[in-house]
Structure formats: structure tokens, C-alpha cells
Specification:
mainly beta; seven-stranded mixed beta sheet; seven-stranded antiparallel beta sheet; about 35% strand
Length: about 220
């Protein structure tokens, strides 16, 4: 079992504490198991788009999980990523509020969040908001964003499942530790094009698994 060695500049630490009125995230998910029928938005049932997957990603047959493997011979699709070990969901959003969860398990190098449809596929880019990527990273023992300046997040409990909430009109992408719905980070921006759920792994300890939540 191994993880890819990625080098990034060490970030400055900042506070992530928000008042409840600072974000329009799905706080009602704290009552998830008791109030399923009252939840809005209803969790989306995502599938991965294999045409976007980096050649080193191995997708499950049901298109809900990825793991890092040897480079495969795949068609050179224009939408395929060739620099980062990532893949997009088949479903994108250009309106409304949406929520989904990703099981990261013991994986120590991953990134999840949202990217715009026109994000670079064939060229190197920094996955940060100005490039059209609103994503959270785990790099070993560090949780971070690639925002400028790069932000190191104080995460007291390592999440094994991430919740991602997109509010398109409000320009928010919020990430949670889905085990207890504690807030991890909120991106604020203005979306101008269709945006897609984003998944990256640089580690083969565990797969990244999209969780299908049923009501």
C-alpha cells in the first residue's frame, strides 16, 4: 500500500470558525437519521464519468468508486484529465442546491469538491478557486485548500466520510465531516457555468466511494 508523494508549499494556519448565518449549508443534516423525509436538498445519487478519468484511476463497475492503479490504455477523450489523478461525476449542476457524500476511509491523499466544466484537462493547473476548482485536500496529516493564500485547516477528528454541499445561486461549496456534520470549510464565489462533483486520489490504501443515501 502506498500514497503518491506530492510536494506543496507549507500553508499559513487560519481560523475556520463561522457563525451559523455565515453559510447557507444544510445544517438540518445534523438530524439526518431522524428526519430523513424533511431534508432539503435530497441527496443526489451520483455516478462517475469514465471519459473524464485519469488513466491511472480504476473505476468500479457500478461507477461509484475509484482507486489508484497502474496506468491503463484508454481512449484519448477531450474531457479526460491527464495531469491530476481525478475524475468528475456524470451529473453537473447549473442551478439549485445539492448534497452528496464520499467515503475516504483510511486514504491519506485525496481531494473532493466541485470544479467548473471548463477546468483544464490536458494541462497542469493549480486546483484553486481562480482556476475553477473549489476542493478540499488531505495531504498526509494535513487538511488544506489551495485558496490564495493556501489555508491549513484545524481538523481535530479525521473524517472517514465527507459531505459536500453546493448552493449554486449563493455561490457556496461547503464541506463537512459527515460522521457528525461538523463544518470543515466553505468556499464563497460566483458560479457562471455548469459545475461538477470532483474526486481525486493519490493513494491506494482505500478507494474513494460515492455514498448513495436512500430516503
Amino acid at each position: 500500500m502506498k500514497c503518491e508523494n506530492m510536494q506543496f508549499q507549507r500553508p499559513a494556519r487560519v481560523s475556520i470558525h463561522l457563525r451559523q448565518d455565515d453559510t447557507s449549508g444544510p445544517f438540518q443534516f445534523n438530524l439526518w437519521k431522524r428526519m430523513l423525509k424533511l431534508i432539503n436538498p435530497v441527496p443526489v445519487q451520483l455516478k462517475l464519468n469514465p471519459d473524464t478519468a485519469h488513466p491511472r484511476l480504476i473505476l468500479s463497475s457500478d461507477l461509484t468508486s475509484i482507486r489508484l492503479g497502474a496506468k491503463q490504455k484508454v481512449p484519448d477523450k477531450p474531457e479526460r484529465f491527464v495531469q491530476w489523478h481525478c475524475v468528475l461525476a456524470s451529473q453537473g449542476f447549473n442551478t439549485g442546491s445539492h448534497y452528496w457524500e464520499v467515503e475516504v476511509g483510511r486514504n491519506t491523499m485525496w481531494s473532493v469538491g466541485v470544479v467548473k466544466a471548463s477546468v483544464l484537462r490536458k494541462a497542469e493547473f493549480t486546483p484553486e478557486p481562480k482556476s475553477g476548482a473549489w476542493v478540499l485536500w488531505r495531504l498526509g496529516e494535513e487538511y488544506t485548500t489551495m485558496s490564495s493564500p493556501r489555508t491549513a485547516l484545524p481538523v481535530p477528528v479525521k473524517p472517514q466520510r465527507l459531505g459536500i454541499y453546493l448552493n449554486y445561486e449563493a455561490g457556496q461549496v461547503t464541506l463537512y465531516n459527515a460522521d457528525d456534520m461538523s463544518h470543515l470549510y466553505t468556499f464563497g464565489d460566483k458560479f457562471t457555468e455548469k459545475s461538477y462533483p470532483f474526486f481525486l486520489t493519490g493513494c491506494n490504501i482505500d478507494s474513494l466511494q460515492i455514498v448513495h443515501l436512500h430516503i
